[in-house]
Amino acid sequence: MRLFAAVLPPPERLTELGHVVDRLRRLPGADGLRWTSRPGWHLTLAFMGEVDEELLPELRVRLARAAHRTPPFPLRLHGGGHFGRRALWTGVAGDLDELRLLAERADAAARRSGVPMEEHRRYQAHVTLGRARGEGMDLHPFLDSLGGFEGTRWQVEELALVRSSLPVSGVRGEQPRYETVGAWPLEGSGAQSG
Ligand code: ATP
Ligand code: MG
């Protein structure tokens, strides 16, 4: 199955983001993007791709350990960014060092469980909001509109393992696109109280 480790922002934070995206979707050119679906909004920590079922038990143990080593930390959705002319996203602010550490631990957990992990480029935490088709398009109008966005901060308290089912066109009663198949609490000893 196709898997990735992620941080899932709480529903209230996604609702906030939803209001911003509603605005973006009314801008000229918005139809040129495939907008991602809200219940699926997530911050990928480590993308694993196809994972053999038999690796799952060890993967779960190692992800639990990665979470266990990481204290809860604050994050907020913040501003906008893009990958070339193709992907539009919102970024995050807050304890990015802890987020990066969690991403590295999730990556290491997968690798040590036998998942062949790609060498990752510089980790750039983001929630993908839309993807342009083909050659892409000028994303600046959307970036301008996203620029001032500051979400309310929340405390990241969980590491999630998410299954991704690639869309099968024309199939009725299709499975949800993303399904959380595991979640482990962050509980590093460095946790701040409150
Ligand atoms: P689609 O591929 O249908 O457009 P998607 O990219 O959301 O949808 P997946 O390809 O299963 O679905 O990817 C799941 C998550 O992992 C997404 O957030 C995606 O951006 C991220 N991801 C996918 N491939 C990689 C990769 N090689 N490196 C880092 N992150 C990746
Ligand atoms: Mg993809």
Structure in words:
With 194 residues, this protein is an alpha+beta fold. It has one domain: Alpha-Beta Complex (Cyclic Phosphodiesterase, Chain: A), CATH 3.90.1140. The chain has four helices and nine strands. The strands form two sheets. It has a five-stranded antiparallel beta sheet. Strands 3-1-8-9 form a four-stranded antiparallel beta sheet. A hairpin with a 3-residue loop joins strand 4 and strand 5. Helix 2 runs antiparallel to helix 3. 31% of the residues are buried. The mean pLDDT is 93. Bound molecules: adenosine-5'-triphosphate and magnesium ion.
Mean pLDDT: 93
Examine the coordinates and then state which fold CATH places here, giving the name of the CATH topology: Cyclic Phosphodiesterase, Chain: A
H and E string: EHEEHEEHEHEEE
CATH class call = Alpha Beta
The major beta sheet can be summarized as:
5 strands, antiparallel
Q: Structural class, please?
A: alpha+beta
Estimate nothing, just give the exact number of structural domains. 1
Number of separate strands:
9
Small ligands present = adenosine-5'-triphosphate, magnesium ion
Distance between the termini: 38 Å
CATH superfamily: Cyclic phosphodiesterase
User: Which range best describes the helical content: under 10%, 10-25%, 25-40%, 40-55%, 55-70% or over 70%?
Assistant: 25-40%
| Beta-strand content bin | 25-35%
